[in-house]
Amino acid sequence: MALASRARALLPGARSWGAVLARVTAQRAMSHRVVVETDAAAGVAVMKFRNPPVNSLSLEMVTELVINLEKLENDKTVRGLIFTSESPGVFSSGLNLLDMYGRNPAHYAEYWKAVQELWLRLYQCPMVTVATINGACPAGGCLISMTCDYRVMADNPKYTIGLNETQLGIVAPFWFKDTLVNTIGYRASEISLQLGLLYPPAEALRVGIVDKVVPEDQVHSAALAVMAQWLAIPDHARQLTKAMLRKPTVDNLVRQRDADIQQFVSFISRDSIQKGLQMYLQMLKQKKA
Ligand SMILES: CCC/C=C/C(=O)SCCNC(=O)CCNC(=O)[C@H](O)C(C)(C)COP(=O)([O-])OP(=O)([O-])OC[C@H]1O[C@@H](n2cnc3c(N)ncnc32)[C@H](O)[C@@H]1OP(=O)([O-])[O-]
């Protein structure tokens, strides 16, 4: 299903794309998964994840993120965007395992297309983007953070960040890998991605997967200070520089979007992969109990 259709499915009764956006704006307070607060004077918006219990990137959440991103990109008063979790403890638990387990191929394809769309939009975002990592940040959560221009992490040893896909028996696709390589370099990525490492704050800073670690109660003020520093640069120069740096990575996915979807669907549909995901979900349940 196309983004507009998914958006309309989320907001039944809206007849056009414009009507969908208008209703998203009007119903912002009712949105359950993403909350956007805009400081028009500062030109900064804060996008807070609110998808309990663990901010997993469900199809609905991904769709809301894309809709809100598009809206902010069209708002010329907003120059900077901060991502954070409304509830400290979990920034995002990554892709929604329940969108990748026990569903049919059409659903997997729709989900993967939406995830691609989110990444493409985030990675090319013209705004300055800062991730305020105030909780656990595995896999897809780490991917979102890595698309940002800067990452500030709360100094809490319970919080970890990384692409842990191999630990689930799954393989991060090439554009997750590319994003990691662009962030921490090739050799560190070889180790990080194969072992599925999740780094606590000090190690995350050492490997370069985050840019700053600050006491938990200062994480938001630190993100605002970083934002102010980045916003001091003229937008056009910074935007063109960002586009130049990121274009080859973006083009790599754009060239092979359909093949990547097909590969994901065939991979995730495998019995062995489904069995592995089932065991992982059970392990999470047992850990909780
Ligand atoms: C090729 C594909 C690439 C894949 C990329 C990915 O991102 S793959 C994603 C890789 N992600 C990971 O490996 C992260 C896995 N998650 C974790 O490690 C922990 O949940 C935590 C550290 C994020 C939070 O710890 P905590 O103690 O605060 O919370 P808790 O552990 O008690 O969980 C509460 C409930 O949430 C459930 N649930 C959790 N995650 C997900 C999810 N992603 N989705 C859906 N559901 C999820 C969990 O089952 C439990 O459900 P229940 O029993 O109530 O029905």
TrEMBL record:
SUPFAM superfamilies: ClpP/crotonase (SSF52096)
Keywords, ordered alphabetically: Isomerase
GO molecular function, one term: isomerase activity
Keyword Kinase in annotation: no
Membrane spanning stretches: none
Xref: InterPro entries: ClpP/crotonase-like_dom_sf, Enoyl-CoA_hyd/isom_CS, Enoyl-CoA_hydra/iso
CDD domains: crotonase-like (cd06558)
PANTHER family: ENOYL-COA DELTA ISOMERASE 1, MITOCHONDRIAL (PTHR11941:SF45), ENOYL-COA HYDRATASE-RELATED (PTHR11941)
Family: Belongs to the enoyl-CoA hydratase/isomerase family.
Protein's recorded name: Enoyl-CoA delta isomerase 1, mitochondrial
Upper lineage: Eukaryota, Metazoa, Chordata, Craniata, Vertebrata
